[in-house]
Amino acid sequence: MSAAAPTAARGGLRLRGVSKSFGRGDSQVTALGDLDLDVAPGEFVAVVGGSGCGKSTMLTLAAGLETPTTGSIDAGGKVALMFQESTLLPWLTAAGNVELALQLRGVPTAERGALARQLLGRVRLGRHVDKRPHEMSGGMRQRVALARVLAQDAAVVLMDEPLGALDAMTRDQMHDLIEEVWLDAGFSVVFVTHNVREAVRLADRTILMGARPGRIIHEQRIQVPRPRAMESAPCVALAADLTQRLREEVARHDEADYFEI
Ligand SMILES: Nc1ncnc2c1ncn2[C@@H]1O[C@H](COP(=O)(O)OP(=O)(O)OP(=O)(O)O)[C@@H](O)[C@H]1O
Question: What is the position in ligand 1's atom list of the atom closest to the CA of 53?
């Protein structure tokens, strides 16, 4: 774990010999094959890999939404998910969406309103609690989604391209916010992204996945002190190395496809 590890680290995730196949016979797809992954309590792991290599499948399994074909998955506490789309209920305000998560967690009615406002304050939406999703920008909606994650009081947070639809400036702001919230809350994060620089900006460790079947082919501990600037020399150098490895992996499959044809 990095020197800037959260004070009250919790969560953790362990995948052992996890494989996942979809379909049967000729149409069977082995999305993941014999994957081992350990995420320490409070650790922030970023996952990159070519399209279709099984990143989302890994998160879906880790969240317990699908069962693995083989292997075991153990999460050290409650798991919350965050996606590229905020998946807010459109008829509820920002506060209403967060209150719903609090209700599902069993927080008493009388406490929900104040707690929802407090959580929205933590993601800098204190002045927008009464806005509905259509009245908010994409970045604001993702901040509500982050507040909803906090409302779930999860120990493991799985993020699937959560910033993929945002412009570069908003994305930068979200990096700062996600880092701040994570350091404060101490949960483990598995963060899937196509943006290599983002992975290096945020993670204690980056993981590169290869395809067919999906598996971990490289990992790198990121020891650049926080807070990091994506454009700083050490971040750029680490991102360049990861990009090169990703390119080689993607090219290997393109070539395989070519010869299969
Ligand atoms: N429910 C499903 N039924 C059949 N095949 C599936 C299913 N879910 C995923 N797959 C297949 O498993 C493989 C891995 O898919 P997955 O979505 O996990 O990849 P990914 O790395 O997240 O891709 P991307 O980066 O494009 O989002 C792909 O070949 C995909 O078509």
Answer: 21
